[in-house]
Design a protein that fits this description.
The structure holds 3 protein chains of 3 kinds. Chain A is built from 7 helices and 7 strands, in the order E-H-E-H-H-E-H-E-H-E-E-E-H-H. By secondary structure, chain A is α/β, with parallel strands linked by helices. In chain A, a hairpin with a 2-residue loop joins strand 6 and strand 7. Chain A is elongated. Chain B is an alpha/beta fold. Chain B has 4 domains: about 120 residues, Rossmann fold; about 180 residues, FAD/NAD(P)-binding domain, CATH 3.50.50.60; about 130 residues, FAD/NAD(P)-binding domain, CATH 3.50.50; about 60 residues, 2-Layer Sandwich (Alpha-Beta Plaits), CATH 3.30.70. In chain B, the strands form 9 sheets. Chain B has a 5-stranded parallel β-sheet. In chain B, strands 14-21-15-16-17 form a 5-stranded parallel β-sheet. Chain B has a 4-stranded parallel β-sheet with strand order 2-1-3-4, sandwiched between helices. In chain B, helix 5 packs antiparallel against helix 15 and helix 9 runs parallel beside helix 10. Chain C has one domain: 3-Layer(aba) Sandwich (Rossmann fold), CATH 3.40.50. In chain C, helix 1 packs across helix 4. A 4-stranded parallel β-sheet of chain C has the order 2-1-3-4, with helices on both faces. Chain C has 4 helices and 4 strands, in the order E-H-E-H-E-H-E-H. In chain C, helix 3 links the parallel strand 3 and strand 4. The chains are: A alpha/beta, B alpha/beta, C alpha/beta. At the B-C interface, helix 4, helix 5, helix 14 and helix 15 of B face helix 1, strand 2, helix 2 and helix 3 of C.
Chain lengths: ~220, ~550, ~130
């Protein structure tokens, strides 16, 4: 799922300067699960903004709302239609898609992002999320035993390893991270498919997905 | 329905002199939803209860707020009273105006007392009733492990009228009992005790024994644990109300200190016991036997117990010189101090070292060198036999079983107590208990107490065949749940599971019987989908907002 | 709450700190009367939002008081509370509320004197900062 992180408060405050009536909107899906923009985080950010503004002597008026999925137009409209009338600006705690969806629907209101959308990933341990997929549009996981070198190798090598792997199978670029190609090797070894390591993988076709991406289903 | 609150204040026999109760009553009566404010001298006594009862019967209130002493002293009195009056006992909110107000501060505390009561009132407005339900439970108990602890547990439960099934992985019952020489001062040998227990168990209709069997899965909650048992290639399923784990320990002779090249003179406790049981088979009587303790593990009591018992047995049966090298020799279990003194009286010499002794071969015997702290000198001892220190470990399979059950183990792999200060036998999961070696406890006195403790808890839980449960005190709101699995992963009591609801959506569900009401899940849920009645977010917030609120 | 009242909200775990506060009362150990105790079943029930709301509503200081390390009946409640307090402290710093106005305390149920000491320390810190 999409993993995101909240921006520093200072940056958010700067975005909001000049605005007095704000709507803070969370999302119940990806950003709830990665503890970045759910109903709880909406409450926390609103508390912080209120505390900050009252200390600085300018009272902010804050409305809170949370949409089931900010990337669904109908859900956004249903949840926010009324509240939006009462505010000057909207602070979205959704991923980049959510921010843009809200902005598209309520075009006259400025919509600001409270989060930085960082990657597509999954929970590795409690409170820890790691990147797994780069949405390159040309999945090669067949060849690499289910481990993606495009995002998990710091250099994005397709025919790794680079030769700089450190002791313990750690990455040359970031010694805290595992070398993806060591992981790939070990995985293929377990499956008895090491012959795949000998295949030469051609440079990736990054035009596999023409940006901005668009997919139309063949049937209704 | 409109909230109508009845307020009872107690001045504790007119002793809370720094609170002006009539002023408080005056202030509170101005609130719209307060039906009345009664002041009593002793709400906890019969007269006070009578007054409360008649008031509640007459007035049509649906919430009760009480300002009195600490809830842990009086709450049960009031909940019982409310139950008797058919008012949901949960619609009660208490303010501690005695220990945490009148007694805690100098001077007039009327202002603070008023605030505390107003906090309780704000919370009371938002309280929802919690229903109670009777849930049938299985009266059968599973005992995992047929050693001393397992057998003893089954026998005690049988005496309490509860049926058990013992699942033992080996061919016979007994566990490690045969490896013990005995407890000095106890006449009956472990073998004899084992025979007696096995026979009693065989004749006991309440106890079923499955040997060469193992547990493959455990599901469910206290009162109803469906367990799969594999035996002889077949798998059976049975439901149990509670489980006692008595899977025991194992010992390992430490390789580092006693390499094979030290030869036949370096022996294990077990080998010594064999020698002691058949002294006539020895080529010659050993002149000196040494023991080494506390080198790798100062905390396990079993090596000390074995050493003291075996040292005394050596004195009695072989008459050899006995020396014990030790660092701390902890004798804090029942009977150990006495055993130690007896050993010294019989001539066992104890040498206290700080640094690890050096062991080497010399002239076909073993030499132990250490600096004795009391003498302040280096000591060198030649022994015919040196008994190796043993490390006590949880038995094989403990970690796997622990994972299966979602149970914590400590740094050495033993199962951990739920709360080390209060509940020695309970585990973090209701209905599951640990006794004996698998917990690292290896002295019989302590273990016997633990077993009694566990069996009594189980009796309380299961004997009536049913359990009263608070329904959905902590509840997951299926519509808001995003199935992120956070609550399921972090619940310390394994009380939450993923279930499928009618719309085919998977959501978390909290099982009332297993829930221990900590609220960690409610705090951590990123979707705010968990409501903990009595400590819900809006209820806590209401208490906060009532502080300093002007009337 | 008025910020001038300098109220201290103390979330107290019913197994430890709440009992310690009772003990202080029974021993007639006096402490400042601007403390308001909110009873919780476990320190782990206290969330970041609760603490922030307390400040938002005017509290001058917040204490989160739970069981000692290793003694939490719910295993991780006290450690989680400590982490949340640390995180909340950083959120407060972001807002300009510096100086550890929120603090995690670990107590046993019989530690009446320590309860009083912690409350007094927070009260003094607040008083000191208000004078400035």
């Amino acid at each position: 799922m999409i993993i995101a992180e909240r921006k520093p408060l200072e940056e958010i405050k700067n975005m909001l300067s000049g605005y007095k009536e704000i709507l803070v909107v969370g999302c119940r899906t990806c950003v709830t699960i990665c503890w970045a923009g759910g109903e709880k985080e909406v409450g926390i950010l609103s508390s912080q903004l209120k505390l900050a503004s009252s200390r600085e002597g300018n009272e902010l008026s804050i409305l809170e709302a949370t949409v089931e999925r900010q990337c669904e137009k109908e859900m956004v409209i249903e949840e926010l239609r009324d509240k939006v009338q009462e505010v000057e600006a909207i602070l979205s705690m959704g991923c980049g898609v959510g921010v843009q969806t809200i902005a598209e629907i309520f075009e006259e209101k400025p919509v600001f992002p409270a989060l930085n959308t960082t990657f597509i990933g999954m929970p590795e341990a409690e409170g820890v999320w790691v990147e797994k997929c780069g949405a390159c549009g040309d999945c090669m996981l067949y060849w690499t035993g289910g481990i993606c070198p495009v995002v998990r190798c710091a250099k994005g090598l397709l025919n790794g390893p680079c030769g700089g792997t450190r002791r313990g199978g750690k990455c040359e670029v970031d010694p805290e991270k595992d070398c993806a190609w060591v992981l790939i090797y070990r995985r293929l070894e377990k499956q008895g498919r090491l012959d795949l390591m000998e295949r030469y993988y051609e440079p990736k076709n990054y035009r596999a997905v023409k940006r901005p991406g668009r997919i139309e289903a063949a049937t209704a | 329905m409109q909230v109508k609150i009845g307020v009872f204040l107690c001045d504790c026999g007119e002793s809370l002199k720094n609170i002006d109760f009539s002023r408080i009553r005056e202030d509170l009566q101005r609130l719209e939803d307060i039906a009345f404010v009664d002041i009593s001298h002793n709400l906890c006594l019969e007269e006070g209860e009578k007054a409360m009862t008649s008031r509640i019967l007459v007035e049509n209130i649906n919430r009760v707020v009480i300002g009195a002493c600490s809830p842990d002293l009086c709450e049960h009195i009031f909940t019982r009273l409310l139950e008797g009056l058919r008012l949901n006992p949960h619609l009660l909110s208490l303010a501690n105006i005695r220990e945490q107000c009148s007694w805690a501060h100098e001077g007039d505390v009327t202002g603070k007392a008023l605030e505390l009561i107003r906090m309780a009132i704000s919370k009371a407005r938002l309280l929802q009733p919690i229903e109670r339900e009777v849930v049938p439970v299985s009266k059968q108990v599973l005992v995992v492990g047929g050693g001393f602890c397992g057998m003893r547990s089954a026998l005690e439960l049988s005496r309490l009228g509860i049926r058990t099934t013992i699942v033992e992985s080996e061919l016979t019952l007994g566990g490690k009992m045969e490896q013990f020489e005995g407890s000095y001062g106890i006449e009956t040998s472990p073998q004899a005790i084992l025979n007696l227990m096995s026979n009693t168990i065989e004749e006991d209709e309440n106890i079923e024994v499955l040997t060469s069997a193992e547990i493959t899965s455990v599901e469910g909650q206290a009162g109803n644990f469906p367990v799969k048992i594999r035996r002889g290639g077949e798998q059976v399923s049975q439901s149990f109300g509670a489980i006692i784990f008595a899977t025991g320990h194992t010992t390992k002779t430490l390789p580092r200190d006693f390499e094979p090249e030290l030869g036949r003179n370096a022996i294990s406790q077990r080998k010594l016991v064999e020698m002691l049981q058949a002294p006539e088979e020895l080529e010659r009587r050993p002149g000196t036997i040494g023991f080494v303790l506390d080198v790798s593990d100062e905390n396990s009591r079993l090596p000390i117990l074995s050493t003291l018992n075996n040292a005394l047995a050596v004195k009695e049966r072989l008459g050899s010189e006995v020396y014990v090298f030790c660092k701390s020799l902890k004798v804090d279990s029942e009977g150990m101090e006495k055993l130690y003194r007896e050993a010294r009286e019989q001539g066992v010499v104890f040498l206290k070292f700080e640094e690890k002794p050096q062991i080497s071969k010399e002239d076909g015997r073993l030499k132990v060198e250490a600096r004795d702290l009391l003498l302040g000198e280096e000591v060198a001892l030649l022994c015919d036999f040196l008994v190796a220190e043993e490390k006590v470990l949880p038995c094989e399979g403990t970690e796997a079983l622990g994972s299966m059950l979602n149970m914590r183990t400590d740094s050495q792999g033993f199962y951990q107590d739920e709360n080390v200060h209060l509940y020695p036998v309970a585990s973090e999961r209701k209905g599951m208990f640990f006794v004996g070696g698998c917990k690292g406890d290896l002295d019989f006195a302590r273990t016997s107490m633990d077993i009694s403790s566990a069996t009594v808890s189980i009796y309380e839980l299961l004997s009536s065949g049913k359990v009263i449960v608070e329904v959905e005190k902590v509840k997951v709101e299926p519509d808001k749940c995003q199935a992120c699995l956070t609550c399921i992963r972090i619940c310390p009591h394994s009380a939450i599971q993923l279930v499928r609801v009618d719309t085919e959506k998977e959501v978390a569900k909290i099982y009332d019987l297993a829930c221990d009401g900590c609220g960690i899940c409610a705090a951590i849920c990123p979707a705010k989908a968990i409501r903990f009645e009595g400590y819900a977010d809006e209820q806590i917030l209401a208490e906060i907002e009532a502080i300093g609120e002007s009337l | 709450m008025n910020r001038d009242d300098s109220k201290i909200v103390a979330f107290c775990c019913e197994h430890s700190a709440y009992q310690a506060a009772n003990k202080a009362g029974r021993m007639r150990l006096h402490y400042p009367d601007n403390v308001r105790i909110i009873r919780v079943p476990c320190a782990g029930r206290v969330d970041v939002q609760h603490i922030l709301k307390a400040f938002e509503k005017g509290a001058a200081g917040v204490l989160v008081m739970g069981c000692q390390e290793g003694a939490c009946q719910h295993l991780t409640g006290n450690t989680r509370a400590r982490e949340r307090v640390k995180y909340t402290d950083s959120l407060l710093k972001e807002v300009g509320i510096d100086g550890s106005r929120v603090r995690m305390v670990n107590l046993g149920p019989d530690m009446g004197q320590q309860f009083v000491a912690e409350v007094k320390e927070m009260a003094e810190k607040i008083e000191g900062e208000m004078r400035r």
